[in-house]
Amino acid sequence: MPSLEEELFPSTPGKFKIDRGHSMNRQFHRCFASTSTMFLWALFLIALTASYLSFQSFVDSGSRYFSASWGGIQWEKQVRNSAQIHRSGGMSVLVTGAAGFVGTHVSLALKKRGDGVVGLDNFNNYYDPSLKRARKSLLNSHGVLVVEGDLNDGKLLAKLFDVVAFTHVMHLAAQAGVRYAMENPNSYVHSNIAGLVSLLEVCKSANPQPAIVWASSSSVYGLNDKVPFSEADRTDQPASLYAATKKAGEEITHTYNHIYGLSITGLRFFTVYGPWGRPDMAYFSFTRNILQGKPITIYRGKNRADLARDFTYIDDIVKGCLGSLDTSGKSTGTGGKKKGNAPYRIFNLGNTSPVKVPVLVNILERHLKVKAKRNIVDMPGNGDVPFTHANISHAQREFGYKPTTDLQTGLKKFVRWYLSYYGYNNRKGLQ
Ligand SMILES: NC(=O)c1ccc[n+]([C@@H]2O[C@H](COP(=O)([O-])OP(=O)(O)OC[C@H]3O[C@@H](n4cnc5c(N)ncnc54)[C@H](O)[C@@H]3O)[C@@H](O)[C@H]2O)c1
Ligand SMILES: *[C@@H]1O[C@H](CO)[C@@H](O)[C@H](O)[C@H]1NC(C)=O
Known about the structure:
By secondary structure, this protein is α/β, with parallel strands linked by helices. Among the domains are: 4-65; 174-270 and 314-351 and 388-404, Rossmann fold (3-Layer(aba) Sandwich), CATH 3.40.50. It has helices at residues 4-8, 13-18, 20-33, 35-65, 73-83, 101-112, 129-141, 154-163, 185-205, 241-260, 282-291, 314-326, 357-368, 393-399, 407-421; strands at 92-96, 116-121, 145-148, 168-171, 211-215, 264-269, 272-273, 295-300, 308-309, 312-313, 333-334, 337-338, 344-349, 355-356, 373-378. The strands form 5 sheets. A 7-stranded parallel β-sheet has the order 3-2-1-4-5-6-13, sandwiched between helices. The chain has a two-stranded parallel sheet with strand order 7-10. Strand 4 (168-171), helix 9 (185-205) and strand 5 form a beta-alpha-beta unit. Helix 9 (185-205) packs parallel to helix 10 and helix 13 packs across helix 15. Bound molecules: nicotinamide-adenine-dinucleotide (NAD) and 2-acetamido-2-deoxy-beta-D-glucopyranose (NAG). 2-acetamido-2-deoxy-beta-D-glucopyranose binds next to helix 14. Residues 97, 99-103, 120-124, 132, 150-151, 172-176, 191, 195, 215, 217, 269, 271-272, 278 line the site of nicotinamide-adenine-dinucleotide.
């Protein structure tokens, strides 16, 4: 019997090449002659793969993602309290990504009008987690509990639905940012794909099923250059992995609507900004650098064209989120079975007036009373698109969405928050 090494690496490779058909045939026979050896090796390989996979998931679940602790009678009581509804016809909402920028604002707005809110967030360090902790404290002081955990922790999600019969899920947790996808592509798959499916699995089995409103992104329009961007425009040319995972989310949620009768509303946000914002976004890092006297990098598109964004103030986005929740209708399934037609909707939430990035910088300079050091460079191919512009007539029709804050006014509020949060107010020359 030939050894396995001979089986895999014939000792006369030259001959193997020339006399291919014949040799292949002989190899084939020899393989079958040694089925028992092959069987043992196959078994060994399967065992190796299995132990590798279980080690991987052990690493994932153990140290990196699910380090938070939860459970117990006291914990359940806190969850129930936070979910308590304080108005007639109110809803109880699970807000994922509650310690994030948009999640914090939406949670506060829901709580203030008397709805029940429970937050979920994994407090990852994509950007300064101390900002997330500060947002959490703000939420706590308004009676909103933020549970620390990961979307992929199905047991935790199931437990939350055990304790509270959520009527709605506002799903905002995600790996955001376009450029970071080149550095850490797996974080996008982990949160925006696997995490989304994990959440939908629990929602589909919940009784009653919650209606789901979730954040897609204007980035799904990708290389589309027909303006303004309308929901019916093509979204099959993503320019970044981030955009691709958001587009995938739109398709994945569609299947859960179709098969299990989950009510789904996808919101394509257009560059959201405001107080408690995200430090990785341009308006935020420009502000930081201008105040520290550091240069800012302004990208320029093809033919030296300025980049433009349909900057949308956070309060307008919050109104859009609440309007979506209020009109989301019911899911039509129970215990994983579909009983009727639940809505599947997609809305742009933008401002409808794009502003060129250099104009944004001018406004910041005026509000900060400091001149920026501009470093203008051609845009590298990193996933950014040259411009965005929302057509919002769909959201306007369905729930009266109408943004009311222009960039000048919104940035003034952002700068006021920034200076106070980072303690600039006590220093000379800046108020
Ligand atoms: N801000 C914008 O301009 C903008 C534009 C388009 C779309 N969006 C989308 O809106 C949503 C909210 O964005 P944001 O600006 O508030 O971002 P954010 O990063 O501030 O908030 C997201 C939160 O989700 C949490 N999170 C991430 N992965 C998680 C996981 N696996 N499990 C649990 N928590 C997790 C993060 O810790 C973070 O606090 C995101 O889905 C984002 O993709 C935002
Ligand atoms: C905006 O979208 C609506 C559909 O919601 C469409 O009828 C209308 O033509 C669009 N407007 C523009 C200017 O593209």
